[in-house]
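__Record contents__

***
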Amino acid sequence: MLMSLGRGVDQAIARPTNHAPMNLLLTFILPWTLALTLAFELVTVLFRFGFKLQATRDTARYVARWSRGLRIHHGYWGVPLSLIGLALLLLLPGAVQLAAWAIVIGLALIKSDLIHHFLVLWPITGHHEFHLVYPKTATVTASPQDTNLCSH
């Protein structure tokens, strides 16, 4: 299946014109970014509202000690992934398929995170919950022995 998805990249750049980057953008990167953004957001909404999980509350016990108290949003992973994809696209013309997928997945992670916090959570819960660090209450309620996870 992944091979057939890769053919979309090949078809987008196969036209012998100076418009190959625009073709790649319009026929592959934008549609797949939209599709993956929606898929990532549906999964995020399922976990948040379906399973009643809150990343700040439910991951503090495990993640905060390893991240030194920084809250790791899924959009954070999208920034370097998109930049790596862009660098691959510019520096290694033979890696267009890998580069395009890195850009698509990276942008979808970024967009999903922003949509989730500012267009879903904020209107529904009244707070965007976009914490840069784990709130003290999250680490205190996560585990009594881990109360110093976020000491700054």
Notes: The two ends are 47 Å apart (CA to CA). Residues 20-50 form the longest helix (31 residues).
